[in-house]
Amino acid sequence: MHIPFWLGLACLAPLILPQALHTRRTTLRLPEGHGAPEGQWGDGSPSQRLLVIGESTAASVGVEHHHDGLASQLARQRHLREGKTVYWQTIGVNGIRMGSLLDKLAVAQPLRADSIFISMGVNDTTSLTPRKRYFLELERLIAQLQATQPQAHIYLLAVPPMHRFTALPAPLRQLLGWRAHLLNQQHQRLAKGRSNVSSLRYPPLNNPALLAQDGYHPGVHGYRAMAEAIAQQL
C-alpha cells in the first residue's frame, strides 16, 4: 500500500468524488476503430510481424479505422525507417483492465510476432487497482507471452501522464497522474533485468490538434505522432 497516495485520496475525497462522477457522466464516449484489426505495410511476404494488445489505444479509440490506429502506425514507422514489409495486428478492448486481458488473449488468436506492445494502465488507474495486484497480473501476462512467443521482444508502453489531461478537472487529474506514475513504476520493475522486455515512455501529445473529439484519446495525427515518438525509443 502506498500510504501517501491513499492519505491524499482521503483528504481530497470531498472534492474529487463529485468531479469523478461528473466526468464519468459527461465525457464523450467514442467507439472503437472499425475495419480489419490487421494489415500490412509494404509488398510481398512480411519480414516482421508486430502485435499491439491492450485497452483503448489498442482498440483504436479516437479514429474511425484500425488502419489509422497505433498498431498500424507503428508498423508504418518500421516500414519507413527500415524498408521492411511489416504485418501488424491489434487486439484491444476499450475499458479493459489488466486482470481481464489474459482472458481476452485466450480467445483472440494473436499472431506470432517479433514485437509485442502492451498498452495498458488507464483503466487500472481510474479503478484504483492495487499496485501489487497490477504488478502480479502484468507479470502473469508477460510470462504467458514469453511462454507462447519466446521469439518476441515485449514493450510496455507507459500509462499516459494523466495529470496533463486538461479535459479532466483539478485536483482529479493530479491525483490520477500520481496514480498513473505509481503503476508506471511497476512497468519499470518488470522490465528491469529482462533482456526481452522494455519499458517505454508515453509520447507527449501536448497539441490539442493531436487529440480526438473527446479531448483524451489520440486522433489520426495523434496516433501518427505517438508511433513516431515510440519508434525513436526502440
Please outline what is shown here:
GO terms for molecular function: phosphatidylcholine lysophospholipase activity. Pfam families: Lipase_GDSL_2. Helix 1 crosses helix 6.
Percent of sequence in beta strands: 5-15%
Summed up, the helix count is 7
Quick one: CATH class?
Alpha Beta
- Helix coverage percent: 40-55%
Task: Please tell me the CATH architecture by its name.
Answer: 3-Layer(aba) Sandwich
State the end-to-end CA separation: 33 Å
**Whole-number tally of structural domains:** 1
Q: If strands are numbered along the chain, what order do they take across the biggest sheet?
A: 1-3-2-4-5-6
Helix and strand run: HEEHEHEHHEHEH
Report Rg.
Answer: 17 Å
Main sheet: strands, sense, barrel: 6 strands, mixed
Mean pLDDT: 93
Pfam families: Lipase_GDSL_2 (PF13472)
GO molecular function: phosphatidylcholine lysophospholipase activity
InterPro entries: Ester_Hydrolysis_Enzymes, SGNH_hydro, SGNH_hydro_sf
Protein name: SGNH hydrolase-type esterase domain-containing protein
